[in-house]
Amino acid sequence: MDTEMVYTQDGLELARVTVVDCNNKVVYDTFVRPDTKVIDYNTRFSGITAKDMDGVTTTIRDVQAVLLSLIAEETILIGHSLECDLTAVK
């Protein structure tokens, strides 16, 4: 699991979530519309541009619903700074 963040008027907000399986196959990858106006896409680190976010309607609540359907009690989560990724989708 990996997340990308952008800077908004309220601080850092979730802008992308990617989940891969144990074979590195992408099982979920979506851009996420922040709740407040983006002031910096943090492209240098996030890779996200304004064009990527054009027309994005997926909300953090949509992401949470999908993740709850993908992740079970026995699911093993792996990621770099996973605690930050999990906090981002909280």
Question: Which shape, going by the Cα principal axes?
Answer: globular
Question: What oligomeric state best describes the polypeptide chains here?
Answer: single chain
How much strand content do the residues show? Answer: 25-35%
Mean pLDDT: 94
- Helical segment count: 4
Helix/sheet category: alpha+beta
SSE pattern, N- to C-terminal = EEEEHHHH
Helicity, as a percent range: 25-40%
Strand order of the largest sheet: 3-2-1-4
Main sheet record: 4 strands, antiparallel
The poorly predicted ranges are none
- Tally of strands: 4
- How far is the first residue's CA from the last residue's CA? 14 Å
Gyration radius from CA atoms, angstroms: 13 Å
Would you give an account of this structure?
By secondary structure, this protein is of the alpha+beta class. The chain is 29% helix and 29% strand. It contains four helices and four strands. The chain has a four-stranded antiparallel β-sheet with strand order 3-2-1-4. The longest helix is centred in the C-terminal third of the chain and has 11 residues, at 60-70. The radius of gyration is 13 Å and the shape is globular.
Sum up the structure in keywords.
90 residues, alpha+beta, 4 strands, globular
